[in-house]
Specification:
With 155 residues, this protein is α+β, with helices and mostly antiparallel strands. It has a single domain, classed as RutC-like (60s Ribosomal Protein L30, Chain: A, 2-Layer Sandwich). The protein is built from three helices and seven strands, in the order H-E-E-E-E-H-E-H-E-E. Strand 3 and strand 4 form a beta hairpin. The longest helix has 23 residues. The relative contact order is 0.26.
Amino acid sequence: MSVEKKLQEKGLNLPVPAKPLGKYVPAVLAGNFIYTSGQLPLVNGQLIEPGGEGKASDENQESVKDAARVAALNALAAIKQCAGSLDRIEKIVKVSVYVASHAGFYGQPFVANGASELIGEVFGESGFHARSAIGVAELPMNASVELEVIAELKA
């Protein structure tokens, strides 16, 4: 089944890629690879699960994991805009997830699973990827999570 059909089957709609906050584009094609800019958990242009009190902690890691899932949908939208169709993707190569974290929170890999699980659901085996999960003090717009994706196009 195609990636596009899997998204439809799961009731997942890709948003219009968010407008950049600076002088960059949501995704760039270089050779056979698409590199996304940092994607935030935006829904209809509004940030969900903001940082500050929403920074990842043991108490709210589940909702921040959901925010990572939303950020992953935004990354897929940027990839689709660049590729024309997600069905042109051969492999999701790398996902880097930045988590605004309270001191003493070490669950960044759990939060990052929100993105990794979504990618696995829609891409299957070609969605298995290398990953980094990094705790940071602050993110743009006071977001709780930001992620980048590298995808390889089919030859």
